[in-house]
Amino acid sequence: MNKNTFSQEIIFFLITICVSIFFGTFLSSKNLTDPFLYYDISFIKSIQDERQLNFPDVGPYKSLSLAPGRSVILAQYANMMGVSPEALQFFPLGSILISATFYYLALRFLKSPIIACLITLYLIFNLSHATALYSVFAYGIALPILFGVMLIYMNLFERREIIDIVLLLLLFIAANFIHYTIASWVILFLIGANLLVGFKTVIAKYQQSNPHAIQVYYLTSAMVVIFFTFNQAIYESFLPFFGSSSLEGAVQNFLTYLSIGISRNVSPYSFPRSRGIGLVSAFTLLLILVPIMVGLTYDIWNHFKHSPTGRVINSWSPIIGGILLIGIVDSAVYSVRGSISTKAFSLIFPLLTIHYIQRIGKRSLAVVAAIILFATSVIKIGVFYENSYLISNNDLNTSINRIDPSSEWMAKHETHDKYYLLADLNLYGKYLLNSVNDSKEPIFLSFDDNNYAKIIGESDHDWNSTPDIIAVDAASSEPLIGSVWGRYKPLKEFADRIINNPAINLIYDDGSIWLAKPVN
Amino acid sequence: MRKFELFVILGLTVSQAFLAICDITGPFRVVSGFIFLTILPGYVLLSFFYRTKLEQLGFFAHLVLSIPISLALISTLGLSANYLSIGLENIPNVTWLSTFILFFASISYFRRSKEKRYNLRSNHYLLIIGSLMILFALNFSLSDVNEHSETPYLSMYVLNNESLSNNYPNQVQVNTPVEILLGVEYEGNTEQQFTLTSSHGSKKHLSLSPGEIWTEIVKVTLNKPGLHEVTWTLYQEGQAVPKREIRLWMTVY
């Protein structure tokens, strides 16, 4: 490598990290967080003075035992950096970890510092996934591990060293402890890569040449066994949601996501995402997927036309196979669980998009594609801002400081030690965090169509589960997060109906938060 | 591993141990703690395993690959330490992780003759210094996150006559008074005047100082059968728009 190229790599790396941290700090200043992160942070806060993390079998922290590695990492970061768990929640750790590892992965895969920089920034700036990526949420910690697997697999691809196998196994076990989705992505990546290597081997034998690439069947099999034996999350949080009705719901969510149309089965209370956001997302998705589909079709066509001597696969094929399998299976599997996932397409498919564009042969075209991808994320920021979705000049919901009075009031006057709180997941998370070290603990009841209709006085049905208390963020203009990825309109749109609803007593009002009780 | 690298790792580890044991917080601890967890464990492990094997492993690759390996190590070793009751508190945590780092760093140093070395160029120093400067910028994201300051607020609430938030009267007899407790809590900068009105005709003036909590048991008597909404509305002096409103529903028979 010549000195200039190396300097470029370092300079673009520093630019990428610097801009990523800057954007992460901006999101942090907006108090953007994934609502599930409140569980981790509350738990870390609750055990901060204890010597050992003991994961409870019941209560709000029960699910954390399914991914204990995450809590262990967060506890160590809070202790070693000397910051409180609350501060850690908004610390842009993911921005650094993801940008550093993804930049290097893209650099090795695409061999261009400027393109690596642009698609890393596309990923970091993509507000559709920013809440999950920028902070210490599971994806922010686990995705770098996936990128590490890909990087080490590239080494393994070039030479067989037992240490690479050991490192891959170490990374997989850690991913399994942190986030089951990423652990499954690691397995899918290796299966996809193995399939392509197997295919290459068959062709190489036919051509009587050295296949060069190395398969890792045993390692992949071991990972599959470990995953299905030791990962309880898949049995408790994933499989129970499988079903045809979930598939239908997934299609509805997906259409809403793309703003293509809303069918008759969508809840009347669903949060209508802005058409602008949907269009930018749909355009980005097309921009990512079309070059891949064209490239793949060309590869397959080439294979059948020129087999066996045609260039069916190049040295990067196993990586491509692995990434493709992640995207396809992840999207399909989530669809039968109630949400068509475009996460893998958005997060790792851009590598393939640029790769296929590069294969056309014009470097400038690949740079332009990377610039357009980056531009979609920047445009998305503008559209989100314009629609006050996730980011805005004003507070979009009640801050945790403003929650304190109502939280203390419930701790003082609520009669049950563990009380069922019907609330938006974000708001519940704040109460959970505030309730640490209190004698009373809120248990989450999520919104569904019936609960929502009951609160705004449009349902005569009984409560699915009667809440002890209902909390409404009357200042929030954000979608209300309910069960299984359901997003509902902010309740402040129905303020009059809530106040005049004879099914609930409005017992507390501090201007931001309303607390209510079902009338017996 | 070069002597230079060993000294840097030793220095970073010892400084982190010092900061953690003495519980000194601040920007240096943030950066030091971040490097201690995110870079060092993976860096020394890769030095130990990789440098004798992988010719192409340059400093840049070594540094970036350290991140996922470190995350994997602190997660798996952390879990082991947790279940072995070694603990994740400051002192035990910094002790076992420092031991791990220094152990692998020392071994890598002593078998440096077998290494396929890469040269540290001026660009590498640019990478180190640039990264450190950027990491210090991280402190800006921590500036005001943890401040739970006393924000001004005004809350109004209703409780049953035992000061609890349950068993609100909802089935009441005609002309039979029911007792409930009303409360107003005010946190602000100056004393404020309020007017409390109710749907059954009562009106009361309140003068509340910052931090003051006003409570009163009130009696509600309803004289017509049917479903009634009983509301209390709080107005701030000089304002026509209600500041707070609460409401109970009662069926009178």
Describe the SSE topology.
The complex is a heterodimer of chains A (520) and B (253).
Chain A: H1 3-29, H2 37-46, H3 68-81, H4 85-89, H5 93-110, H6 113-125, H7 127-133, H8 138-158, H9 162-178, H10 180-206, H11 217-230, H12 233-238, H13 244-258, H14 275-306, H15 317-335, H16 343-347, H17 349-360, H18 363-386, H19 400-413, E1 418-422, H20 425-435, E2 441-445, H21 449-455, E3 469-473, E4 480-481, E5 487-488, H22 495-499, E6 504-509, E7 513-518
Parallel strand pairs in A: 1-2, 1-3
Antiparallel strand pairs in A: 3-7, 4-5, 6-7
Helix pairs in contact in A: 1-5, 1-6, 2-3, 2-20, 3-9, 5-6, 5-8, 6-18, 8-9, 8-10, 9-10, 9-11, 10-11, 10-15, 14-17, 14-18, 17-18, 19-20
Chain B: H1 3-21, H2 27-38, H3 40-50, H4 59-83, H5 90-110, H6 122-137, E1 153-160, E2 171-172, E3 178-187, E4 192-198, E5 203-208, E6 213-220, E7 226-236, E8 244-252
Parallel strand pairs in B: 2-8
Antiparallel strand pairs in B: 1-3, 3-6, 4-5, 4-7, 7-8
Rough outline of chain A: globular
Helix share, percent of chain A: 55-70%
From the N-terminal CA to the C-terminal CA of chain B, the straight-line distance is: 88 Å
Number of helical stretches of at least 4 residues of chain B: 6
Number of helices of chain A: 22
Strand arrangement in the largest pleated sheet of chain B? 2-8-7-4-5
Q: How would you describe the oligomerization state of the chains in this entry?
A: heterodimer
Terminal CA distance of chain A:
76 Å
Q: Quick one: biggest sheet of chain A?
A: 5 strands, mixed
Strand-residue proportion of chain A:
5-15%
Which spans of chain A have pLDDT < 50 for at least 5 consecutive residues? Answer: none
- SSE succession of chain A: HHHHHHHHHHHHHHHHHHHEHEHEEEHEE
The coarse silhouette of chain B is: elongated
Fraction in beta strands of chain B: 15-25%
User: How many E strands of chain A?
Assistant: 7
Instruction: Give the largest chain-chain interface (CB within 8 Å).
Output: A-B, 92 and 87 residues
Q: Structural class per helix/strand content of chain B?
A: alpha+beta
Query: In total, how many beta strands of chain B?
Result: 8
